[in-house]
Amino acid sequence: MTDTSGITNGELVRNATPAAERGPEHVSEPTDYDAILLAGFGGPEGQDDVIPFLRNVTRGRGIPEERLEEVATHYRHFGGVSPINEHNRELKAALEAELQRRGIDLPVIWGNRNWDPYMADAVREADQRGFTKLIAVATSAYSSYSSCRQYREDFAMALDDTGLADKIQIDKVRQFFDHPGFVQPFIDGVRDALLKARAELDDLDLSSEIQVLFATHSIPSTDAAKSGPQSRGFDADGAYAAQHKAVAEVVMAAAEAALDLEIPEGGGSTVPWQLVYQSRSGPPRCRGSSPTSTTRSTTSPAGRPVRWSSCRSASSATTWRSCGTSTTRPSRRARRTASGPSGLPPPASTRTT
């Protein structure tokens, strides 16, 4: 395991985006909080929940019922249960245990955007317990409307709906994509998958016969462009793609260092990798790349199975069971493309509106 002791927030992925560069602090004095608000996306926990949940997710977008029924089949295949709520229960318990270990008396309240327990329920619970200052942690690491600003809108709506806007204050922590605690599991997962593949296949050429897939949630190209302003140095794909690329580069560098792989001339990665997108919600307008389409289009020689390493954040788990990082055994003729850094295809071609 790569030693990350002594690394402070943001230093594992150094200046991953212009917005991550150090600058003046937002506050000059620390704030005392009464509780942590764990803010999740929410997911169905039974067949009867599926359609109502999807109506919540798509509220105001004019999605026809027949389309919801099509999407529902993915949940019904697993008994109508999304794993995201159970993951968040485990995360809540882990946060509580760690706070207790550190001697910090700070309760954790859980609220969701789209399913029970709803955000308004969490706000009411806070009021009933006498809490007035909450620090919110959303289970979405990267910058985009739905993973950042929309949660702030959720908080405002919950406070308004409960009539507690003048009584309770909610502050949200920054996106945590570059926090060592978030990045390290991806490093461990990729490293272990590559070690296993190399151990099982003695003649494996890691530079041409393995491909690592970093899977994330698809968002509209327009939303991606708005996730970080060009005035801060982002390109047309915004902070969402830039942050994913930065983390992937760090993960690959650390995993390859653990395997004692030689760094190519000019830098970059020895093992080819791609950023792929899952859970597209709109019609494709251009060529795209997803975990399933990528693995299906990459043929394996006889006896060379496709290999997956599941490593994901909670916000992705609701719609894709094995997302995060993966390795596949392509044909021996497959080579890294030159369409992006380290074989990364341009993000604009993989997202759809």
From TrEMBL:
Lineage: Bacteria, Bacillati, Actinomycetota, Actinomycetes, Micrococcales
Name this polypeptide is given: Protoheme ferro-lyase
GO MF entry, a single one: ferrochelatase activity
Bias (Pro residues) ranges: 343-353
Stretches with biased composition (Low complexity): 279-305
Keyword DNA repair (UniProt): no
Biased composition (Polar residues): 310-323
InterPro entries: Ferrochelatase, Ferrochelatase_N
Pfam families xref list: Ferrochelatase (PF00762)
UniProt-listed GO biological process terms: heme biosynthetic process
Family statement drawn from the similarity comment of this UniProt entry: Belongs to the ferrochelatase family.
Keyword terms of this UniProt record: Lyase
Gene3D superfamilies (UniProt xref): 3.40.50.1400
